């Protein structure tokens, strides 16, 4: 009987050891707070604004980032560099079919497909889907304590957003809106 009890105790210890190892090894954390600032460029100027993250998670193996996925609330896009009627006009235009078509496409997603790096410095490959069109992108991501930061460049023409694009319409010259826009992202988890 004593031998049987010691075998059961040993199996229990092994099972608990395995459970705690897998818990420490693979961990997915929810993004608790975020800041996403966009910047778009045109001939002779730029506009900036914010957009809200609807949900997001990051996955880790110990302290090494291994994945993540995010859903962006496209209806929340707004400009922060304008006021009054100019702000209302730009915000409305960004939400229209000329740009993000938020009635038909209320969310965008980013899914991390692979990660390289260590010690908080990572190079991320991901698929970003905007207006139903997916583009493979890569960007550096820095993690310090419980905060991740990244700067992304997105080519809007890859997502069928071609309004006043100089690569599509060479004739617009001084009214061009450049194809790439920036996202400056901070995630707290």
From TrEMBL:
InterPro entries noted in UniProt: Lipid/polyisoprenoid-bd_YceI, TTHA0802/YceI-like_sf
Keywords: Signal
Any matching Pfam family: YceI
SMART domains with a match to the protein in the record: YceI (SM00867)
SUPFAM superfamilies given in the database record: YceI-like
Xref: Gene3D superfamilies: Lipid/polyisoprenoid-binding, YceI-like (2.40.128.110)
Protein name: Polyisoprenoid-binding protein YceI
Organism listed in the record: Winogradskyella thalassocola
């Amino acid at each position: 009987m004593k031998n049987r009890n010691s075998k059961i105790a040993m199996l229990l210890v092994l099972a608990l050891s395995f459970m705690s190892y897998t818990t420490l090894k693979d961990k997915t954390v929810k993004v608790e707070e975020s800041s996403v600032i966009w910047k778009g460029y045109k001939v002779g100027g730029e506009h900036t604004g914010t957009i809200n993250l609807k949900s997001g998670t990051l996955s880790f193996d110990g302290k090494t980032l291994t994945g993540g996925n995010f859903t962006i609330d496209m209806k929340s896009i707004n400009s922060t560099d304008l006021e009054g009627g100019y702000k209302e006009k730009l915000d409305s235009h960004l939400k229209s079919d000329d740009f993000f078509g938020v009635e038909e496409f209320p969310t965008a997603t980013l899914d991390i497909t692979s990660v390289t790096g260590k010690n908080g410095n990572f190079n991320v490959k991901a698929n970003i889907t905007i207006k139903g069109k997916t583009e493979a992108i890569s960007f550096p991501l820095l993690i310090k304590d419980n905060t991740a930061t990244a700067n992304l460049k997105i080519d809007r023409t890859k997502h069928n957003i071609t309004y006043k694009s100089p690569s599509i319409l060479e004739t617009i010259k001084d009214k061009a809106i450049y194809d790439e826009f920036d996202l400056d992202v901070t995630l707290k988890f």
